[in-house]
Design goal:
The chain contains 21 helices and no strands. The protein is mostly helical.
């Protein structure tokens, strides 16, 4: 499976995580100093929160509230505004709560930001999806599935319903053999290219329930069988947001760093930057940044740092630059 959160995050959520890092109190002190009295020291907040990974931010958020009797996200909302303030609020929340907040915003107001929904949920590990669902209902008093069911329709709604089931199989080399890959390639073919009309439910279940190691084998078997990759077949069989969501799912499983790099770039492309989408994607893919940075430079011909420096400004730029310089411990992410 493609895991986007460090394993320590789940240990923190269960209460069995590693002891609180010694410097958490120092970080809390820096935040307190940067927000105490008249005015806000934005640079102090960037220095305190910007270098932290998801597990470290979890400890800081919990400890700050213990020490000062105010939620850290609530404090950031009070102390900073605009895109900078919004980014700080997400950074000040445990990662599952931050991603639940992203999904809530994607469904808020007139129209739904379907791209923000499917890039947040598709192509990731079961336990991350379940944690986001749990955080969503705890924060907002309604199930994520119920909200998405009311906001989405058609094939995209069907795909997200299957995503929320969180039933990707655990990779087992004794089960996920070449023969099994050929069988699944045949099932995928008969649900799409080889029939009149498309059986979207079957297509989605093949790509969503196959672990990445197996989906790579299925893709090779499908190419041998049809001359098309799974992605090319999906482009032929689907349309609109459902097509893009299905392609994102496949690409996150087959080439996660390259796919994440494209999501980040898309948030800065064209007329104006999607600052919220950029913030959400950096937080989501933070633990993959060591592999995203070279993938980005190879794809777009300049470093991610150069791109951010040329696109953003002010305190928001300073914060994003701090975030994208993050290097995960070697054990943080399992792909």
């Amino acid at each position: 499976m493609t895991r986007l959160w460090p394993s320590d995050v789940f240990a923190c959520q269960s209460g069995s995580g590693p002891d609180r890092p010694e410097d958490v109190a120092d970080v809390c002190g820096e935040i307190r100093a940067g927000t105490k009295g008249f005015g806000t020291d934005e640079d102090a907040l960037i220095k305190a929160l910007g270098p932290l990974g998801p597990a470290e931010r979890y400890h800081v958020a919990k400890r700050y509230e213990e020490l000062h009797d105010i939620g850290l996200a609530k404090l950031m909302k009070k102390e900073a505004s605009g895109d900078f303030g919004t980014a700080l609020q997400l950074l000040a929340s445990p990662i599952e709560e931050a991603e639940a907040a992203v999904l809530k915003k994607a469904c808020k107001g007139v129209g739904t930001n379907e791209e923000l929904v499917y890039t947040t949920l598709c192509g990731r590990a079961n336990d991350e999806i379940l944690a986001i669902k749990k955080a969503f209902i705890e924060l907002h008093g309604v199930g994520l599935g119920s909200v998405l069911s009311g906001e989405l329709s058609g094939d995209l709604k069907l795909l997200l319903e299957i995503v929320l089931e969180a039933q990707e199989e655990e990779y087992d080399p004794d089960l996920h053999t070449e023969d099994k890959a050929e069988e699944d390639a045949a099932v995928f073919d008969k649900a799409g290219l080889s029939r009149l009309g498309t059986d979207e439910d079957t297509l989605f279940k093949v790509i969503l329930r196959s672990p990445p190691e197996h989906l790579k084998q299925v893709n090779m078997a499908f190419v041998d069988r049809t001359g098309y990759s799974l992605a090319k077949a999906l482009e032929k069989e689907l349309g609109g947001d459902a097509k893009q969501a299905a392609l994102h799912t496949v690409n996150m499983k087959l080439k996660p760093s390259e796919t994440a790099a494209r999501v980040i770039e898309k948030s800065m492309k064209g007329m104006g930057t999607d600052e919220y989408g950029l913030t959400a994607s950096i937080l989501r893919y933070q633990a993959l940044l060591d592999s995203i940075r070279p993938a980005y430079e190879k794809e777009f011909g300049k470093s991610l740092e150069e791109r951010v420096r040329g696109e953003l400004s002010g305190d928001f730029k300073k914060l994003i630059l701090e975030l994208i310089s993050y290097s995960a411990p070697s054990s943080d992410v399992d792909e």
